[in-house]
Amino acid sequence: MTDINQEQYNKFTNLPLLSYNCISYLMENDELIWKLLKYNEAKAYSRADLTRAEKADLIYAGQENITDFRVFMDVGQDDSWLHESTVLRITPIELIPTNHIYGHVTMGFEVYSHYKINTLANYTTRIDTITQKLIEIFNGADITGVGRLYFDARQNRSKAIIIGTIPMKGRALIMCNHMLG
């Protein structure tokens, strides 16, 4: 029998859905990132916006040929991947229980781009453009199941750092929040 007087404990029950919920939010709130992921040419930013179905087709869900996809729910780039593409990986990278009820989640956003297609025709790079857009879209956003994400080093370990090696170099963006599990 359940004791209704027992304190509620954080079970982090939303953990398996955190990546998916961030990707769903991105699908509804951005167009540029999706174009830079889908199209490899230097003027990818000027292409038409993708439909929801086209965006969904870029999300990996366990299919056999991973190089057909651009958005993943795990960390790290396979060093054998030589396909000229840009990849976005979104995943929880750290859970810290603040106390028995509240917790702190660190979400990682990793962007990798093959060095041959990283530079865009407007004298910017895919890696920096996507990182900036991720900050713009997610900083302060209230994501279903995740809570309000923020990019604020005074409150957490938020940062953006260089990752990967040629041919797939990139940047990791780390954002955090406080959540009730």
Q: What is the approximate shape?
A: globular
Question: How does the helix and strand content classify structurally?
Answer: alpha+beta
Helix tally equals: 4
What portion of residues is helical?
10-25%
CATH topology: STM4215-like
User: CATH top level?
Assistant: Alpha Beta
Poorly predicted parts: none
Q: Any idea how many domains?
A: 1
What letter string, H or E per element, gives the SSE order?
Answer: HHHEEEHEEEE
Task: Identify the strand order in the major beta sheet.
Answer: 1-2-3-7-6
Strand content: 25-35%
Largest sheet: 5 strands, mixed
Mean pLDDT comes to: 88
**Between the first and last Cα atoms, what is the distance in angstroms?**
22 Å
Radius of gyration: 18 Å
Number of strands: 7
CATH architecture: 2-Layer Sandwich
Q: How would you describe this structure to a colleague?
A:
With 181 residues, this protein is of the alpha+beta class. It has a single domain, classed as STM4215-like. The chain is 20% helix and 28% strand. It is built from four helices and seven strands, in the order αααβββαββββ. A five-stranded mixed sheet has the order 1-2-3-7-6. Strands 4-5 form a two-stranded antiparallel ribbon. It is globular, with a radius of gyration of 18 Å.
Task: Provide a compact summary of the structure.
By secondary structure, the chain is an alpha+beta fold. The chain is built from 4 helices and 7 strands; from the N terminus they run H-H-H-E-E-E-H-E-E-E-E.
List the helices and strands and how they pair.
Layout: H1 18-29, H2 32-38, H3 52-56, E1 71-72, E2 86-97, E3 102-114, H4 126-138, E4 142-143, E5 147-148, E6 159-165, E7 168-180
